[in-house]
Amino acid sequence: xxxxxxxxxxxxxxxxxxxxxxxxxxxxxxxxxxxxxxxxxxxxxxxxxxxxxxxxxxxxxxxxxxxxxxxxxxxxxxxxxxxxxxxxxxxxxxxxxxxxxxxxxxxxxxxxxxxxxxxxxxxxxxxxxxxxxxxxxxxxxxxxxxxxxxxxxxxxxxxxxxxxxxxxxxxxxxxxxxxxxxxxxxxxxxxxxxxxxxxxxxxxxxxxxxxxxxxxxxxxxxxxxxxxxxxxxxxxxxxxxxxxxxxxxxxxxxxxxxxxxxxxxxxxxxxxxxxxxxxxxxxxxxxxxxxxxxxxxxxxxxxxxxxxxxxxxxxxxxxxxxxxxxxxxxxxxxxxxxxxxxxxxxxxxxxxxxxxxxxxxxxxxxxxxxxxxxxxxxxxxxxxxxxxxxxxxxxxxxxxxxxxxxxxxxxxxxxxxxxxxxxxxxxxxxxxxxxxxxxxxxxxxxxxxxxxxxxxxxxxxxxxxxxxxxxxxxxxxxxxxxxxxxxxxxxxxxxxxxxxxxxxxxxxxxxxxxx
Length: 515
Fold this sequence. Notes:
Layout: E1 3-13, E2 33-36, E3 40-48, H1 53-56, E4 60-65, E5 71-77, E6 82-88, H2 97-102, H3 104-107, E7 113-128, E8 134-147, E9 154-164, H4 171-182, E10 186-187, H5 193-201, H6 223-246, H7 252-269, H8 276-312, H9 322-345, H10 348-362, H11 368-371, H12 375-399, H13 404-431, H14 433-471, H15 477-512
Antiparallel strand pairs: 1-6, 1-9, 1-10, 2-7, 3-4, 3-7, 4-5, 5-6, 7-8, 8-9
Helix pairs in contact: 6-7, 6-10, 6-13, 7-8, 7-13, 8-9, 8-10, 12-13, 12-15, 13-14, 14-15
């Protein structure tokens, strides 16, 4: 089974192999001594698609021999100087299926093959604190690379990297860098060995298709450029979240579902900027993906809510095997929902969505007239339309008497508030503070109405649990108590909703929607 670690490091170009300055690192932050660890010979074959889809997205997959971590390593980018490294000790020459699945959002199903072999003669040195504990490892690598692609070539260089221990203080990297710069070492230009090797030993990355080429006619500062910046960020986030969802990382399903909804909302709200013949199928697939992820996410929310409520009850209010029934319900529902998520990510439809999103970023299907327009005019027209949609749903909902019809109306208004919020997010960099305030108020409406809807859903689940308990001869008292609490919570949220809506209206009437 693969295991994951967080790797935080910086790489530097080394003009020569003279490292007599290593003693200068003593006193860099908490560094008290430097310990030489000898020399290690490392040999790694990197795998990628023929068009280098992993390398282009700053990921890498390798099979390493030598050193203390022989086996397969998948490295995925994280913010800043960090990467996630997922390892398996398998030495098979076939890519482990678990790692292959984790690359799917980047490869989009393309076959993986050896693309470059990198050998490193590594001279590691441990940076120790006053107690002798390891703070980081500084390594000088003499690297030689041999391309295994059709345009085979070779290259060699020397580099230095500083890697923190797990949970190490990132401030140490800044302290060490000051010493390195004083000794003539600057940051390496390439983000990784494999990127540099393929850049220097092949022509593939040098002739890489540049997404900016397809946008040459989209001038900076236009509506099209702003919308594309927003969609690019979301497409990248969706791709990055895929491996986390497959590995069941906490909150990953929620974030992926929200990202899919944001993307869909952007393509829907700003459909005047895009060619709908291209984007409508993508929108439909994003809706499908969000729905498939929703089973697992909705169960997570409901399970955590019910578990917390049961634990908060005083002992005399808990009658019968309440926690046991809740756990049995959770296991059955969670297993089914998890299977649904993984089946969706393994489906041809999801693969088609990934390809559609890639096309959206590489060759954006923009409508020239709208995309070239001033963002103020285009964005405010969209925001006014989304605001009117929200008002047209919220006003009637607030006028209704409490009951199922009002619950449904509030839920529909919540969806409209979400659309307005996402449309404001895309417009905010161009329109500034007034739109940021409008988005904030729309979010508040969404949150209050969402909390009311959660109570509606929770009451339905409690009723079903009570029915099951009754059929098994168990007391239904506790489920009834919780049902009553949820009813009171829903009523409280309904009382808060008019104020949240009033603030959203005020934000809309100020500068946000005025030309």
